[in-house]
Amino acid sequence: MTAKNMEDLVSLCKRRGFIFPASDIYGGLKGTYDYGPLGVELKNNLKAAWWSAMIYDRDDIEGLDSSILGNRLIYKHSGHEDTFSDPLVDCRACKQRMRLDKLVKAGRCDFCDSVDLTEPRPFNLMMRVNIGPVLDESSYAYLRPETAQGIFINFKNVQDSLSRKVPFGIAQIGKAFRNEITPKNFVFRVREFEQMELEYFYKPGDGARLHEYWLNERLKWWYEQGLSPDNIEVQHQKKEELSHYSDATADICYRFPHGFDELEGVANRTDYDLGSHSKDNDALGVRAHVQPNRDSTVKMTYTEPNTKETFVPCVIEPSCGVDRGVAALLTEAYDEETLENGETRVVLRFRPHIAPIKVAVIPLAKNNEVIVEKSREVYSMLKRLRIGKIELEPGGNVGKCYRRHDEVGTPLCVTVDFETLEKEPATVTIRDRDTMNQIRLPISELEDYISSYYRR
Amino acid sequence: MTAKNMEDLVSLCKRRGFIFPASDIYGGLKGTYDYGPLGVELKNNLKAAWWSAMIYDRDDIEGLDSSILGNRLIYKHSGHEDTFSDPLVDCRACKQRMRLDKLVKAGRCDFCDSVDLTEPRPFNLMMRVNIGPVLDESSYAYLRPETAQGIFINFKNVQDSLSRKVPFGIAQIGKAFRNEITPKNFVFRVREFEQMELEYFYKPGDGARLHEYWLNERLKWWYEQGLSPDNIEVQHQKKEELSHYSDATADICYRFPHGFDELEGVANRTDYDLGSHSKDNDALGVRAHVQPNRDSTVKMTYTEPNTKETFVPCVIEPSCGVDRGVAALLTEAYDEETLENGETRVVLRFRPHIAPIKVAVIPLAKNNEVIVEKSREVYSMLKRLRIGKIELEPGGNVGKCYRRHDEVGTPLCVTVDFETLEKEPATVTIRDRDTMNQIRLPISELEDYISSYYRR
């Protein structure tokens, strides 16, 4: 099973140190969350898996980490200043403000049922900050609403400094900010979030094939992180739903507790992005409809080394939300199981590479010095494997320790018990989270066992 | 040697894809930088080393990843709203604005030499953003000026959910923002930067010992990252320089190209932070001078399990800048060496775990299919070791490849040449960046050689 309702997840996340509402001691700040000790490991593991798949396992993608603050001209030419907005209406009766397109009863205030609403006005979702000591309109910057633009404006920097040939990609992980009117569904729709975005640059003509290729690559990757194909649905946007520049967009949707919703979008954005940010873009044969750019200082073109053909590269963009990924992993992993004794155990069935704690070492008796000392030795040995977080329990009630590690998804518990001390060679038990089976293994074989478990 | 001037570093960083000025194609945005393909690896390697040292190698520290946006009450009670400011003056003649404490000629405008300056006014360095659809004073949040406050407000969340006993620490890596009047010295003083901060909570009384302990731990760690003790100086702040709440602060200063300057601060902040954020803080015996807090909903106290003694924990804070760390690593690693033939080679002598590219595989002849195919096999094999970024060169001029990898600090180059094809068992050469010595090794031994090189 997976998590059926958000409340179970939210409560487990808070109780066990995965995710807390942010600014909580001061009444919170809507749409922001803090990742606790287990949440940060979970999130980092997901990010590391993506970075490996993009940067280390392939030979056609470079990494980037661009700034969150951006010159406003970036977002003028990207189109965000003009179009990245929701239509808002005010209720003249109760003074509440709402999104016109999300009103529960069309034309009526959601709060007081009045029909005395203002005309809709566009509300831009970008957050802006003043930069420098002078407070005026000329000195503000935007917090990026997506990481993608940082990639586009660095296209030539990366291509030149790394001598890259098209096709190649640039990948980035980082925070982005949107002034969502109604943050909701836990970490699904928030005002501060993290993205993992790839922009894969190609020569015009290769779009259809590459769009399909990347959609399949991304699906395969999500399956490898543990999401079940049964809980994933690909929605191809219809021609009339597409942005004016887009050739094709496929949404990878996951079955969240609130329903199927977007986890990742894979879009063929054609030459709109590099075209928009290019100097003299009206003379470069850009196919997408772009506004003339008199601000940019760089031509975003590429010249084929052999044919000397020059063109503005197109992009395929697989773009996903890290926080949505974390929510999907938690939803998928969550299980409640009725045990033989009638009790219920909650278990998070993460894949080993995703689990926040890799191994818990448990001394069976917390007052037995030899057992505690031996546990500490085993613990130190496992830390040296550098496979991630290893935890040493204070010990005592081993059943309680197993329950806690089931609830946070620790794949393996290693227990040092009285038998460890009695027989030669010294052995420990290894308990599997999913099957609850235990095997006994000489300590001398433990390193190999654990490291091959985490290599597979 | 190390880098003697900033220009060499800045130019190498741009040319080789380490660090670019941000928003560059639109005239830039002062005090912001983008990390290119090599820079992001370098920075991630430094962050991973810190996270390992804090979280995986120790058993008394938990991780956290709190939000950048913060409720303004956090920064009211932390003291930032009142005191986190620089004194600014305006020149009535030329309308420029400057920091009073940094004027080149006291009492005179730095731009036009006029003495007609306004009275100084405090200029708060925090950046604020509007949140939610209504634009008014009640709905703004701050971009955090340091990651530390996110740790303090989560003290009880972490302590409760992980059942932690004092002393223990909470560590965090993340972005912070300051509206610096005069960003300068490359990535040293910027408006958007990344921090690695530890807050180590202890029982009042243990401060002096722990402050010394952490100062030594942090020095040791910087040495392990490759900084030479000759280039590091510890400056103990004098009693009169300390903040009113601080018991002791030691600055770890590095010899940057612009001179010795702060890389990390290790401060004993006493019980000021948890005291300030605590509900009913006037009744808790807080020793530091704190403002009464009627906003917080949580008592930031800890009760000893055995003695039942309740107190507000104190903190030691080792806090360093990631970007400054990167600048120090680059400065330290930079070397220019005159070769036997009179040519100069530039080499970045990074420690292996810090180097952005771990191994470069070079086919000696780019038009020899067998050599190219063999190189690709070796490349795939090395990628499977999962030690980081491996690069496959297109090949051709091997001397040029070596120079490029010297310049980006790749410790090892593996070259597939004609001898590889001629003899059994097939061998490759491994060239060491620092000594330029080459050894020949059977391909069958390559995996072991490389993985033990990166394990040491």
What's the shape of chain A?
globular
Low-confidence stretches of chain A: none
In CATH, the architecture of the largest domain in chain A is 2-Layer Sandwich
Number of distinct helices of chain A? 13
**Gap from first CA to last CA of chain A:** 25 Å
Can you describe this structure in just a few lines?
Two copies of one chain form a homodimer. Chain A is an alpha+beta fold and 456 residues long.
Lay out the secondary structure.
The structure is a homodimer.
Chain A: H1 6-15, E1 19-21, E2 33-35, H2 37-56, E3 61-64, E4 69-71, H3 72-77, H4 80-83, E5 85-90, E6 97-99, E7 121-124, E8 127-130, E9 140-143, H5 148-152, H6 155-161, E10 168-177, E11 192-202, H7 207-224, E12 232-236, E13 248-256, E14 259-270, H8 272-276, E15 302-303, E16 310-311, E17 314-321, H9 322-333, E18 334-338, E19 344-348, E20 357-363, H10 369-383, E21 389-392, H11 398-408, E22 412-416, H12 418-422, E23 427-432, E24 438-442, H13 446-455
Parallel strand pairs in A: 3-10, 20-21, 20-22
Antiparallel strand pairs in A: 1-2, 4-9, 5-6, 5-7, 8-9, 10-11, 11-17, 12-13, 13-14, 14-17, 15-16, 18-19, 22-23, 23-24
